[in-house]
Amino acid sequence: MYDQVTLTLNVDPLILSALREDITSEDVSTNSVMPDPKLGEVDLICKEDGIICGLQVFERTFTLLDDKTEVTFYVQDGDEVKNGQLMAKVRGDIRTLLCGERTALNYLQRMSGIATYTHSVAALLSGSKTKLLDTRKTTPNNRIFEKYAVRVGGGNNHRYNLSDGVLLKDNHIGAAGGVKQAVEAAKAYAPFVRKIEVEVETFDMVKEAVEAGADIIMLDNMDTDALKEAIAYIDGRAEIEVSGNVTRENIARLVDLGVDYISSGALTHSAPILDISLKNLHPVSEVEI
Fold first, then answer.
1. Which member of 47, 131, 137, 195 is catalytic?
2. pTM for this entry
3. Which of 1, 41, 105, 125 is spaced 20 to 30 A from 114 at the CA atom?
4. CA dihedral of 152, 154, 273, 50, whole degrees rounded to 10
5. Does the annotation count 137 as an active-site position?
6. What is the DSSP letter of 273?
7. Distance between CA atoms of 217 and 167, rounded to whole angstroms?
8. Separation in Å, CA 52 to CA 38, 186, 198
9. Helix, strand or coil, per DSSP, at residue 241
């Protein structure tokens, strides 16, 4: 769950931007059938099994439109939910419920899909010392939601953005003139509290990274034999991350390597949504409150 400062400064502006994208002047459909305020209620129903995530964002979407909107939840983020399960009831001005429906569901479906997929991948690493990491391969302006969903699903966040840590990738190394030069430049520039991670693709680059004193070495797109050779050479002199098109379908080959981290862009860029709907919208009288 987001704290109040994060919610106000970083989350609310993004939700409001999404609402403005959906309502540039007015909701013509809603105003056609509901010209005046009327109290109503609608059910939030899960339509497939998964891990629910994003309930706070779902609620906030409606309360930003109308702070009198009330959401009663029967689940919390991280819960396993089942097809057909009633997860919440939303009560408020019917016009608000209709205007906010799509945006609220877009967030909830996307975040729940990422949490569900991450949960299934993390389960494959259960019992090992290896931590599952996400990447920066996120939807623009949705990183704060997608990385939160990874945590709810049982994964861990890699750096949040470019200001968050030093990761020297192939093009940084090319620009610097080599692994050694890139690491030396990073050590000279970056604050001493920052770890320096280097992405390598060959055994020669592994040796350079170790000799240069990299804190973390990312073994990128290596076959299993190359990974084993590199891990044996590093021999505890740096933390090890494995990356490169890691998915639920192929992560099994990496589980027994004993590395510190496995990163997967698929957690955020390839997770399907979780099917969720708002159903059974109906007017209610003040007496029913």
1. 137
2. 0.95
3. 41
4. -90
5. yes
6. P
7. 9
8. 30, 40, 35
9. strand
